[in-house]
Here is the input.
Amino acid sequence: MDWFQVTFLALMQGLTEFLPVSSSAHLILPAQIFGWADQGLAFDVAVHVGTLLAVMLYFQQDIRQMTVAWFSSIFKQKKSQDSFLAWAVIVATIPAGLAGFLLNDFIALELRSTLVIAITTLVFGFLLWWADSQCRRNRDEHQFQMRDAIWIGLAQALALVPGTSRSGITITAALMLGLTRQAAARFSFLLSIPLIMAAGLLKGIELYQVGTESQISHTLVGGVIAFGAALVCIHLFLRLLDRTGMLPFVIYRLVLGVVLFAFFV
Here is the structure.
């Protein structure tokens, strides 16, 4: 990779990991459209670690409270809103973990295409618009029940299909269940932590086993750029969410889907 590709791909990972526009699609498409070589495992690990550190830094207080409350719920049988939220994140992570374990090879071989990305970009863009405009939004993340977490977790499993968007589908599901925009986004961000951690760990193990060489400078800079972009993205997204709603992201997805069908399918 040259420095333009490093910067572009790291920015795409950092910005799109937490926006409802699909980070996987934005990392797959440049290679297919511009003919870029695969960025390599080391770079993938670096940008995943960058986005993971960003979301953990931004929600460090929530994570600390949830972790303490979770251990208290186990060893002291002490239940609280924070312990329930921690258990909800764990439960909602399970469906995507199982789906990834069972279907990862099939998805990698059969679904990483421009046609699939174009279809899912449009379909789940419309679904996001419907959930944001039509559903009641009157609960925060401390007011939903475990069955809500299960539904959001099942929805998250769909994000394995490129173009769906992990944040997009989880926010959509949360809005459909009656959560406010802020609550839906915050739970989606917290829910991203175990999956990004698992993805980075698996890629790290694969990198260790394969032992591929990489340019250390590209890897380090890519991770730093992804970290900075993700941190800014989370902050601005939460600040502007109630003012803008999901409409800007819906419009972006619809335009992107139409462009993909018109020029690249």
Remarks:
- DSSP finds eleven helices and no strands in the chain.
